[in-house]
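pipeline: protein-struct stage 2 | run 1193 | Alanine--tRNA ligase
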Amino acid sequence: MMTSNEIREKFLSFFESKGHTRVASSSLVPHNDPTLLFANAGMNQFKEVFLGLKKLPFKRATTSQKCVRAGGKHNDLESVGRTARHHTFFEMLGNFSFGDYFKREAIAYAWEFLTEVLGLPKDKLWVSIYEEDDEAFELWQKVAKIPAERIVRMGEKDNFWSMGDTGPCGPCSEIYIDRGEDHRCDAEECKIGKCDCDRWRELWNLVFMQYNRDENGTLTPLPRPSIDTGMGLERIATVMQDVYSNYDTDLLRPIIAFVENMTGKKYYGDDRGFPFRVIADHSRAITFLISDGVVPGNEGRSYVLRRILRRAARYGRELDLNEPFLYKIIPQVVSLMECAYPELRKNLDYVQKVVKFEEERFNETLSDGLKMLSEGISRLEQEHKAVVPGEMAFMLYDTYGFPLDLTRDIAQEKGFSVDIKSFEELMEKQREKAKAARKESYKIDELFETLAPLPPTEFLGYDRLESEGQVQ
Ligand code: ATP
Ligand code: MG
Ligand code: MG
Ligand code: MG
């Protein structure tokens, strides 16, 4: 069986053998892009290179990039634990061409890696292309010998990629694997490979950056088209390790096993295992985010971290973990990941302290909050209502520190929805009040500064090259 560490290494060295320079993952906190919450794709750290604003001393690069998709444009938080393939934190393997090779080579490399290096069965692989991209349709048949029936044309939403409203953009092509009839769902589309369920496991996305879009929306061909690709390590590990879900791979299963030991409860791959999966996923996100310098708080990135952490803490209650426990999982995450991300070991103590501190603080109000919510819901049930009022969600937020999605999780489990609009209105009012009074809640987060502060994360991507004077 191929381990995830081996797959990651095979990928990077394969592309090195094709003339790519191995570049380290950037921090999860983007250093060059205030519009981006967290790094969510391998191309982020090369954005300026693709835009032609920055030049690197090489034209081909390969990375394994730390990504978080738990807020902003890409938010997979709700899918975590429900699908077999979505995480908040995951690693994206990628190869990049900065105006060097294009479609034909990108397709040839991806195909060679999957079918020759990894030995995946050719007849189980399908591809999607952008509906107007006849060139890709031809190339997949010519270069990879994929029959036309397994090339699915998709629309702009799925298969046309753009960096923003203007700038570089182009069609993309996704490689997915048919996990077989056993995994199919009931949708009619599922039969023809056009389904968003777990049967069709998207593995790899190849983006063909070939146009520039101007303010009027007009596309002009780029003189030097580029390539940006991304493949989820957890997903390819699932396939290589011949398991059903990402949670059964060597990246996540040991964390679940750790929680099994901690609770004396057994994990199941079905609905019963949901809290285990959420805790395993969130533990990784928490570890990596804090190690990259994020602390729990009430704004922006810090609030996303707080939401993830508190959500995991609440799912602990479902496994009868009533005392802080997440901080105990962190060393397990570090042992699994330190080989690829050595900074984790260095930051372990600090990360544990931050997690424990936040858990303890939340634990003070969690029980009372849960009680208040469940009583509230019972009352609403008696009144034959199905919506948790905004006031209740706001009170849970304000008094008990419940992020909205946590309240929503619980409400949903009982078949309730939450009046988000009135919640938001109350939040807005409070923000105004807080602004006027320079509120105390901001101070709480300064408490984290009393813990050994973390040195700013080193960005080992091309910053390192810059300091070595290699970048023009
Ligand atoms: P999906 O359709 O499955 O949500 P996507 O099309 O949103 O994936 P891309 O933006 O194309 O994903 O990202 C490139 C690759 O990264 C995907 O093909 C997949 O292998 C992986 N990936 C994307 N999102 C996640 C996630 N939330 N967790 C794990 N892997 C992911
Ligand atoms: Mg997605
Ligand atoms: Mg997709
Ligand atoms: Mg995709």
